[in-house]
Amino acid sequence: MNITELSWSVWLGIALLVWLAYDLMNGAVYLHRYIERDSEPMMYWGSIVLWGIVAASCFIYPEL
Q: Is the model's pLDDT at 46 over the cut of 80?
């Protein structure tokens, strides 16, 4: 498989996984506001799980 043959959905999934990894290492998420893991753990982990599900859906359903 040639890397240029990947669909836009797969590229989006890769970008979201990179963003997710950065947020996990940084300990903070920036969506509509800055959310730190130490001060708001439920919002932080909820956001991480949500982005993980969205990223996974890009690989599970690449045609959509």
A: yes
